[in-house]
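Translate sequence into structure tokens.
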Amino acid sequence: MFSGIVEGAARVVALRHEQENLYLTLSCAFARELSIDQSVAHNGVCLTVVAQEGDTYTVTAMRETLDLSNLGLLQVGDEVNVERSMMMNGRLDGHIVQGHVDTTARCISVEEKGGSHEFTFQYDADADMARRGYFTVDKGSVTVNGVSLTVCRPTDNTFAVNIIPYTFDNTNFKDIRVGSTVNLEFDIIGKYIARLSNI
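Result follows.
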């Protein structure tokens, strides 16, 4: 489990395909502290460390993960938001994030707002997704590329988020442009409520 408070950026240093799996090798500040079998969120996707050497480590993304996320679009040199799993004796500074990406969204607007930035995203939505809790609510939580954020002005298939300068500078939000694809994880509490209401 994660909190959506990104620890930093990891840079993709190698990509290797093996059958339908993608092995990603990344470099980051805490790579030497990782061990095999440890969970790390990458743009919000929980992946297991399968190898660690020096300042790099390797994780595996299988076909379903690649189909539901933006990891398959990564190139060598790209930055990925990373977060190690949450320690249960710490503060929950973001919200409960599972690291199970639900879908992707496309950035449709970026506006500078007096030092901060407002990003608007659009995702494919239908009645079945809404019944399963895949939607956003005003002032609710959503995870975008692994970052815990507060929703503004949601519609059936769009929402906006406001990014403070620190988050902009220290995550890959600085690289998101109109047309960029991001990972979304909807709030788990909303999913449980939606499921209960449909029983």
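Note: The chain has four helices and twelve strands.
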